[in-house]
Write a structure and sequence with these properties.
This protein is mainly alpha-helical and 107 residues long. Helix content is 60%, strand content 0%. Helix 2 (22-35) packs antiparallel against helix 3.
Length: 107
């Protein structure tokens, strides 16, 4: 199995979409471990143990990928992820009709 297939399988095990932040990955990992913990899961011990190992291994695969991923800090890449407010301000600035004019909020 290739790296892409391993990561895809791990992603599905954790219930992640194709795009996820590190925070979302960690939160999902914790949720699943809590779900399969003996105090909250009524499945038999062997199934719980197998599922917990599967979750931990999937998390390790995903985090290993994230730790070795080379991030781009280029202007083009960063601008793909600006907030809606930043996009609007960049696009329309202080235009009296379309911009974020604070005076309009006095109504």
């Amino acid at each position: 199995m290739g790296k892409y297939e391993k990561i895809t399988e791990a992603r599905k095990t954790l219930g992640l979409y194709e795009f996820a932040t590190v925070k979302e990955i960690k939160n999902r990992y914790r949720e699943l471990l809590k779900e399969w913990h003996p105090d909250s899961c009524k499945e038999n011990e062997d199934i719980r143990k197998e599922k917990t190992i599967e979750i931990i291994n999937a998390y390790r695969i995903i985090m290993d990928y994230c730790e070795h991923y080379r991030f781009s800090f280029s202007k083009e890449e960063i601008e793909k992820y600006i907030s809606a407010d930043e996009f609007w301000a960049k696009r329309f600035g202080s235009d009296p009709i379309w911009g974020n004019n604070k005076d309009d909020e006095q109504d």
